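Model the whole thing, not chain by chain.
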Amino acid sequence: MATKSPHPSPTQAPAHPETAPTTSVVVVGAGPTGLLLAGDLVEAGLDVTVIDKRPANLSNLSRAFGVHARTLEVLDMRGLAEDLLAHPSYKMDKVAAFGNAELDLSRLPTTFPYLLVCAQPYVERVLRDRLERLGATIQHDTEVTGLAQDDDGVSLTVTGPDGTARSLRSDFAVGCDGVHSAVRHLIDLPFPGGPVMRGIMLADVLLAEPPARPTVHTNRQAFAFAAPFGDGYWRLTAWSRADQADDGEPSLDQVAAAARQAFGSDYGMHSPRWISRFHSDERQVPRYRVGRVFLAGDAAHCHTPAGGQGMNTGMQDAANLSWRLAAVARGASLGLLDGYHAERHPVGAEVLRSSGRMARLATARSRLAVAAREAVAPLVLGSPAVTRMATMQISGLGIRYGRGPGDARTVGTRVADHELPDGTRLFEHLRAGRFALVGGAAPAWDSELAGWRNRVAFLTGPENQTVLVRPDGYTAWVGAPDPADVSVALRTWCGEPAS
Ligand SMILES: Cc1cc2nc3c(=O)[nH]c(=O)nc-3n(C[C@H](O)[C@H](O)[C@H](O)COP(=O)(O)OP(=O)(O)OC[C@H]3O[C@@H](n4cnc5c(N)ncnc54)[C@H](O)[C@@H]3O)c2cc1C
């Protein structure tokens, strides 16, 4: 089922594409997905235009509240994890599940073995500050209203703050414009799926008598979740079967009533700085790429808030797409861009499934389902193997991509950060969108393969093989320690060497 949209028809193409200013990539939308993507592209040296219909001073208050381990790794690969950790936040190393069971994140194989509770505006601020440091600007109060593409590029119509429409021409365009995406509509993609939950209330509040730690409770009438932001405020997520109003701001009393139903207490909540109610759809576009136009983040997929995956999945979409666009700009085959849909669409589909399962279980009504939920969860999560699988999935660390015929077993798998013989860390070398070539002889090829020096870190590693690590931290290629083979791999994955 396609969503209804107030946006103009896809036939509304720009008036004078031949005279429009040209750019490599137009990023539509400066939420977390668009900001990460734009920063990566600018850092890779591409000419990028970023537009957002939001006014400059209006934040995405407060929305997502959790940054998972893999997203923190993505930020670390950009030198931004420390910036985010400097903002108010709370490291949650145990995530409550059903029936008093807990998911222990503290044993995750990562530098960040926790869920970082941190308000979405801080994530956006870190990404925006990076863009500013790189000298890029966001054109605010500016929305896309027309789009057409041909074999050579994309022509967009954008409407600025004074209501005047103008044309832009780019090699590629990426719709990071959220769940009501105009880009999605303009390329005529359906957004099949439907509603899952109504009446989810969110409030960022102070608690006079806070619980000792993050807490979740579910019964047949209600569920609620409370977690601290680290700045005195708590995020309350509450749902009550008895209060299924449509969207629109609930009162604090309504949130407190649902919390009392679930927790048996409202913890003396007061002074909300943000309060909201929303319904949740489960939808996903069938294709993340149509020609030279891509969709990423909420524009491509939406699901329930269970598991806190929305912002995280969008940022990881962006990290997967940015290095591909940069490589193609440097002469890699356009086919490299197909990998974006091939890898990220299944990840989005799995997020829809797992988040939907959690939400349906949390709101289950029948006595049988409730009993099963409360009894089975602690038993299942008592198994170390199940716990490891569940924590790897929820944290994003377990995501692995496919490999081609004849590829080594590790191609497509995540490469964990680790210390190198010279005391540096692998992730430090992936900054600025660089690949890492790791192998015994790799440093010696620095001159032989000098054309890639700016894009590839040549690092010491095992003697008998060479591993090419992508800028998003997954293995691209594994081969023999032979510069001739390596140069073929570099051409494929990173583009042509600089002369
Ligand atoms: C009320 C609410 C609560 C949420 N709570 C949670 C949560 O608890 N946990 C969680 O993980 N996720 C949550 N989410 C989801 C999370 O906020 C999103 O997954 C995340 O913001 C997605 O980022 P994005 O950059 O893809 O899209 P968005 O953050 O939506 O950003 C899209 C940007 O595009 C701009 N834009 C839109 N249309 C146009 C246009 N035509 N032209 C130009 N610009 C345009 C918008 O102004 C916006 O800045 C919540 C969402 C909502 C609405």
